[in-house]
Design a protein that fits this description.
It is built from five helices and 13 strands. Strands 9-10-11-12-8-2-1-13 form an eight-stranded mixed sheet, with helices on both faces. Strands 6-3-7 form a three-stranded mixed sheet, with helices on one face. It has a two-stranded antiparallel ribbon with strand order 4-5. Strand 4 and strand 5 form a beta hairpin. Helix 1 packs across helix 5 and helix 2 packs across helix 4. The N and C termini lie far apart (44 Å).
């Protein structure tokens, strides 16, 4: 693949960490706003949701009332709105990636595919092949993001959707983030969406080690696909303060 970025571009890599969905979405929004203003470099990060959560697409206003009262492992399941579009995603046993960058050209689908190339290559390095889905606009009638796979989504050889992504364009910059299903709890998935979770390719590694392994594989693929190098940099205290101010009602 030909890189869409200048050679040897420096990106920021924010290390993997868990936080509430509300916090994670605020971080993604803040990074996008900072990058669009020229105050922050392109960024790649991976994260998990604690507690488990359902994220709603920005324009998704209809959802089952029962979602407001779900629990998992004795804790309420958060209901969070994403800054991006799409349908509901259950964040439990998954790994979420976020890319914030600019300078991309082409249609929305072409931008998806430019960014998704690192996901395809990274998963291939783990021994699997991913392909784009082929569902049409029918997805808007399905409250479950993983119930359909569009041309912006990545599926396994048997058609099982592994990665669902969504975008937000803002002042020349783009945020693309997506959920990688690794270890979904079948009972919780069924309770939320009324259908069984499709089986995911089993891996010998489990839990936190699995998420770290996948994140590292995708990070290495991103270096190759985007023709850049990383500066690993956790969020600073001043950055956390700025993000926290976005959470204040």
């Amino acid at each position: 693949m030909t890189s869409f970025l200048k050679s040897s571009t420096k990106w920021r890599l924010i290390p993997l960490f868990a936080a509430s969905g509300r916090v994670q979405m605020a971080i993604d929004r803040w990074l996008l706003e900072q990058h669009s203003s020229g105050l922050h470099p392109s960024t790649l990060r991976f994260y998990t949701w604690s507690p488990a959560a359902i994220s709603l697409g920005y324009h998704q206003h209809k959802y089952p009332e029962a979602w407001q009262y779900l629990t998992w492992q004795g804790k309420p399941v958060d209901l969070v709105r994403r800054p991006t579009g799409g349908r509901a995603v259950l964040h439990q046993g998954d790994l979420t990636y976020a890319v914030i960058t600019s300078g991309l050209t082409g249609s929305r689908t072409q931008v998806y595919q430019q960014i998704c190339e690192f996901l395809i290559q990274g998963w291939r390095s783990l021994g699997g092949e991913l392909h784009y889905g082929n569902a049409g606009r029918g997805y808007i009638h399905n409250s479950n993001c993983f119930g359909t796979a569009t041309s912006a989504d990545l599926v396994l050889a048997d058609g099982t959707k592994l990665i669902g992504s969504a975008q937000l364009f803002y002042k020349g910059a783009v945020l693309q983030h997506g959920s990688i299903r690794l270890e979904p709890d079948t009972e919780l998935f069924t309770e939320v969406f009324g259908t069984k979770a499709e089986p995911i390719v089993p891996m010998a590694t489990r839990g936190e080690c699995l998420r770290v392994m996948v994140a590292e594989a995708l990070m290495k693929a991103a270096i190759s696909c985007f023709d850049m190098h990383f500066e690993v940099q956790p969020l600073s205290l001043s950055e956390w303060a700025a993000i926290d101010s976005m959470l204040t009602p």
